[in-house]
Fold this sequence. Notes:
With about 150 residues, this protein is mainly α. The protein has one domain (about 5-135). The protein is about 50% helix and about 5% strand. It is built from 5 helices and 2 strands. It has a two-stranded antiparallel ribbon with strand order 1-2. Helix 1 crosses helix 4 (about 105-125). The longest helix has 21 residues, at about 50-70.
Amino acid sequence: MTLEEMQRSVHANARAHGFWEGCYVPEHAPRLDQFRNLAEVPLVRAEVLKQIPEKVALLHSEVTEILEAYREHPDKCDRDDLFYVGDEWRTREQTVVSPPKPAGIREELADIIIRCGDLAEALGIDLSKAVRQKMDYNATRPFKHGKTC
């Protein structure tokens, strides 16, 4: 799956599950790079822009959950063969739920990417292009970006 396909898929799923309820978001938002300046961006964008604080707070909560996963289970938080069911860790074979809910750092990293894709799609941002541009820029930066830590 490409990043663009993932972005569209997670946004469609978020819409279907009510996470954009009360906020008009077109099924396929126009890409921001299609406009010459922000004055040309449709008014519907204002509705989406109002959602940014809440969506960023939810992203922050997923980042915090990575730290919680590590603190609670440092010996298991990075394993991809374990799933958290109720209050205990189980292997796929021990899990009766299908598909089993992933747990630990991998789940939270996935949630971050999912939330980023959802917001990017709602805003009409080509996340794949944005990531490539940022990676290209980062390649030109000095060692540790000029910092000591």
